[in-house]
Amino acid sequence: MRRTRGVRLAAALLALGIGLAGCGAKNNDTGSGGGTPTSGAPAAGLKIGLAYDIGGRGDQSFNDSAARGLDKAKTEFGLDVKELEATAGETEAQKEDRLRQLVEGGYTTVVAVGFAYAEAIGKVAKDSPEVKFAIIDDFTDGVDTGANIANLTFAEQEGSFLVGVAAALKSKTGNVGFVGGVNTPLIQKFEVGYTAGVKAVKADATVQVKYLTQPPDFTGFNDPAKGETAAKGMFDAGADVVYAAAGGSGNGVFKTAKANSKWGIGVDSDQYNQPALAEVKDVIITSMIKEVDVAVYDFISSVKNGSFKAGQKVYDLKAGGIDYATSGGKIDDIKAKIDEYKAKIVSGEIKVADKK
Length: 356
Hints:
By secondary structure, this protein is α/β, with parallel strands linked by helices. 38% of the residues lie in helices and 21% in strands. The chain folds into two domains: 2-155 and 292-315, Rossmann fold, CATH 3.40.50; 156-290 and 323-347, Response regulator (Rossmann fold). The chain has helices at residues 2-16, 62-77, 92-104, 118-127, 156-170, 185-201, 224-236, 250-259, 292-304, 335-347, and strands at residues 36-37, 47-52, 80-85, 109-113, 132-136, 149-154, 175-182, 206-213, 241-245, 263-268, 284-290, 309-315, 322-324. Strands 1-12-6-5-4-2-3 form a seven-stranded mixed sheet, sandwiched between helices. It comes from Actinokineospora auranticolor.
């Protein structure tokens, strides 16, 4: 089956006259900007394939941030783009097939949005050395690493620390909440950072924690009803601010916050400014911004100009890949205090743990 697919791809590429640059050597540098550039002239006539995580374009959060980066690259470079979306409860084989569809369609630059594609991208990239791949949010040596894979990761714990500071300063009860979409090591980074930020301000504060689903059930990233129920339980137990690191499920958290005259904190995108959240934006005091759009745009640009780097690149506060939102003016009174903590993280005075 793979041989047949390979023949079809080779024929398609030959017909389109696409020049394939050589792949760069693998580099597992864990610092910002790690990796080794490939050799060869800048690529031309790129076809970009993007595979979304559950929720896809329109989730007002993680996937939408990736979409903004894709849209910017498409507009600036005039690229041929194809987008495919994950479905709830799908198998590893389905994820792998989605990536192979893009490769077989002649899409020689492929972005996989989310750690759930780790195993699939490792297999497909190995079979397609002429294609440049990027995966968002995962770097597992021997699984999704290789000479043609860029691993684009983020210091989510740093941004979560800052919104934890905001939650503690805004809370009147000393009781706040964290709703995680799925209980994975990645989302635990959000929880750990958030809790550390809260405790840095109020050591005796209570932080309620609830994960909506457990792997391999990833529907917790796109189930607003579950988010609504979880947040309601926290508010009933005394919380007055809840941080939702749960993708589309966060919409339910904000809905409950509004119904109970409480506060919510968004994630990934500046959720106060998302059109689909207009009815609840008045309860969103801030969001932990994760510049997935910047990472996607950077990756596509690097392939286009011939500077692609394999290996891990970390987008942290210092690199400008993580931040917090001030839209709506609800944290204007505490911004100076948050920025004090931000400066200490950037300087290294405060080191935010990324695991429990």
